[in-house]
Model the fold of this input.
Amino acid sequence: MQEHRALILRSNRFLGSALVERGLVSVDDLESANEKFMEAIQSSELKRASILSTLLFETKSLEEQSLIDHLVEEEGLGLIDLSYIDLRSLRPYNVDVSLCWASSTIPFDKVENTFMLATCYWLSAPVVKHWEELLEGPVIWYATSINSMTRALEQVEEIHEAEDAAAAEE
Amino acid sequence: MSYSVLILDDDADFNSLLTDIFEQADYIVTSLTDPVEAVDVFRETDYDLVVTDHKMPEMTGAEFMKKIKQIRPEIPVIMVSGYLENDTIRELISEGVGGVFLKPLNIFSLLERTSELIAEAKKLENAPPQDSGSEPEGEVDAKLGFSFRSFPCKTGASTSFAERLYSLRNFRSTLTLIGEKGMHYRSICEDIRRFYESDAEQFVYLSPGSFDSAQAISLIEGAKKQGAERVTCVLLEVENMSAAQKKLAATLPKKDGDFGEVGVNLRAIYCVSGDLDSLFDEGLIDENLYILMGTAEVRVPPLRECNIDIGVMAQQLVVEMAREKGMAAVPRFEKSARDLFREQPWLGNYEELRATVRKIMDSDPGDVLTLSEVKAAMNLSEAASPRARFESYLSSQQVDLVRAAAILFGGERAKVAGFFAADVNEVASKMQ
Done:
């Protein structure tokens, strides 16, 4: 995760500002969340370093449903529950799962050259830019919930572990 | 043509000051201190504009305005007061006041607004009714409802900026101003300070040249002695601060470390010139500050986005410099000269504008600042060689340096002249 430290800082900073700009959280709430976020960064617990998780689950100053409603109604994003998706290894895409954790984003399918990406960080421009530059091909973006993302990434990690174990046996 | 103005203020001294200001600006002034008498006089006389105080014993300025608006609603009214609640200002605006000025007065702005209001009233008087959507593109009539001086707010960009700052005035612990090089952050922060009317709210300014915990604590203690319950520390040029200063800047609003013992609430305004992400990538802004600055950040519009403001800002600088020089009359730009100000890109923003005006004012101008004088100053500052530009810069700084040395040497001309290895008379003229 350390290699994604700069992206984590930038994407969370942008997300916080975007949430305030859209009236989804107040400046005071963001300020409290920023403090907790920096504590996580400084203690190098980068997997825990997420403004969004902090706002949703620690300070409880944002309701995920409001955010998802905003993404669907105002930003025109499709919504996806990753538990209904048959997830596979990310290795064919040359994507490191730590980047997915760092940006709360996962490529869950590829149709011809087009990648399907689910994210909790659509409002963070650096995340969108990073992924669109990384993947070679057009991207269709979907919004998803934090819980759906967490379960999906854990599942992908298990898939990778199984692949590694199989490779070791051979 | 001279226009007639009715001035009403129960404070005889301030009434006299207002009368002098308007008479010197060639208005025909009737000066009264009693609002009841003023209503009677207004009924009998044709005035082009009324200037009134708000707080008066027999009736408030708002009540007076209502009465005269019933007699002649088309006559513009300007309210001048020592203190007004924001709600009162909004109410006055909704009732048709043409301008609200809080003391101490910005005389130039007052006269500027006076002439605008009279011109608008005459235009309406002489023209058939029209749609209101005829303002020039990009220009808005900024009835902000609060005092704001760092930008005249005649453009959408500067008006939105002022409104955003006002909406964030009660920020809890940090506010970040991000703009291009050469912006006038100190004046902008003075505007933020003026959003609060009470001594309980004090601002102190900290720059890379001198900022350390001892200096900051000393300034905070000084503010406390003046009655501050909350101190806002304005940190200028954060990008130029040392690593230790940046660390200190981040701890300040949290009252960590050295600031743990100050018995007063602290907030910070970070002023940064440049693109924050680039500064972060270059290591000029550390992680902690980068996140802290994301809480409430406001982009300061560059001058080129506020082109209608620039002529007014230039004239404000002339007023300020004329006062510094003790000039009897304040020179004014002719219209073509003001238009030229609007057309320039001002890549060096306010500092470049100030340097240009300084050059004009240092050339012993007459009462009217002509297009050719402005062109000459701009050519020197823009088109000349690097050497000429550097000479011009040094020249513009010369008077400030001489005055600083004069303070250092207790005003002794010989010592100042010796310090600069210059002629005593020449130094004396700069000191004046």
Remarks:
- The mean pLDDT of chain A is 91.
- Residues 1 and 154 of chain A are 15 Å apart (CA to CA).
- Chain A touches chain B through 18 residues (CB under 8 Å).
- Chain A is about 55% helix and 10% strand.
